[in-house]
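Task: encode each sequence below as structure tokens.

Item 1
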Amino acid sequence: MKMRSAFSFVGTNFEKLLVIIIVVQLPLLLFHSFVTNMIYAVTPNAGTVYSVADFYYAFFTLFLFLYAQVPFIKYTYNELEGRERPLRDALLTYVVKGFPFFLFAGLFGLLAVIGFSLFVIPGFVLLAVIFTAPVIAVIDEKSIWKSLKESTLLFKKNFMKILLLIFIWGCIELFLGIALNQVVLNVTRSYAAIISVQMLMNMLFYPVFVVLLTISTIHWRRDFNKLM
């Protein structure tokens, strides 16, 4: 039901979400592509399964994943609440209040990648615990750090739902990405074409996921507050 609501919301508000995609998400994706390509170019491969470059790639991916959520969350919440100028307010929130989220994304992106590197489960669980914190912080207009407590409580109450949301959506993107890469490789071996298709897929699916996460978090908080 929440999945249907997310797709319906994106379809109804696609033009305004497209502005956020172009203004916020696309520059971050280009930055991610440039930095990771540079890292792979200058970082030697020691012959292990995972190289240092892979670690940096995972970190930048998680970092931008957490950081780019802010305007999408704010816009979704503004529209659901019927607030005036939802797009303007979302972009303004990203510009004015983005720095704490930048630090948060950097710290927990690093911790999660370390957890994934040592053993997959710790990184996965840490990511799930802090997963709703950005949504709570944006909705309540409070510090991201003060939102961690409620995020932890929501995880304890809805841990299976949150874990499944991350796992299922991750698998969908992974397998779809592999399939699209195969299609592109059957047409051309151009690295630019492969990167372009990956970025396009991210620009289409990431907003849907953040909208789904926002709607789900609102429902989880409402159900949690009823029990209190």
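Item 2
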Amino acid sequence: MDGARYLEGGRLTIFRRNGTYYARLRLSPGKYVTRSLKTTVEENAVQAGRRLLFQLEHRAEQGLPSKSKSFAAVIDDYIRFRERDYAHGKTSAGMLRQIKRVSKFWREYAGNLPVEDIDDKVMRDFIPWRRDYYGSAH
């Protein structure tokens, strides 16, 4: 790692690869995570790297994994939950069918986003996106 900067007692390393800055974070002895900081400005990289380190440490303190589930994975969990409800007579076949149908749109729209990135703006933008989706050749 040429030109690497070691910060926060060695828990954070900022380095550049192909012009873009990356952070290498030590979460525990022998366990590292490397993430792109999506910047070519060193000062911005240092700030973003520190913010990322503190976020990941906070997640670890709460017993959460360093990488959150995608929205698609949460949808899959929800469908499995509703399928169990259906098996126990707590959800109708029609409701389960509707959930699976609507989930296809949500997966297409925001399935690759981390679940914590699903905010009011993402929710508000879904309806216009879905109208456009119906209007295209899908």
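Check on item 2: The chain has four helices and four strands. The radius of gyration is 20 Å.
End of task.
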